[in-house]
Design a protein that fits this description.
mainly beta
Length: 119
């Protein structure tokens, strides 16, 4: 079983920065893709950024150039550096990890961390 523990959320003014961390704990096979998603009040959960085990990244258009995703495979940890934050970035941010077991893709989610950007 995999447990994802997020940290680093909080309240920041527009234009500020925050760094989110997500550490995977438990016994599991090597993690394939890891990522961050977010959900604002009244909206659906949306992809923010993903990163493969080899380091290939993918970003939502709304965060390109402002957010950077990275990971430390030895620590089973993924990070999200968020710069130039905007009020519209306010949301609960969720960590995600995918592990292939044979032909089955298992997906795990963290509990979420609140990010609030004030104008």
């Amino acid at each position: 079983q995999v447990q994802l523990v997020e940290s680093g959320g909080g309240l920041v003014q527009a234009g500020g920065s925050l760094r989110l961390s997500c550490a995977a704990a438990g016994r599991f096979l090597p993690i394939d893709a890891m990522g961050w998603y977010r959900q604002a009040p009244g909206k659906q959960r949306e992809l923010v950024a993903t990163i493969t085990r080899g380091g290939t990244t993918n970003y939502a258009d709304s965060v390109k150039g402002r957010f950077t995703i990275s990971r430390d495979n030895a620590k089973n940890t993924v990070y999200l550096q968020m710069n130039s934050l905007r009020p519209e970035d306010t949301a609960v941010y969720y960590c995600n990890a995918g592990i292939m077991v044979g032909l089955t893709a298992n997906t795990y989610w963290g509990q979420g961390t609140q990010v609030t950007v004030s104008s």
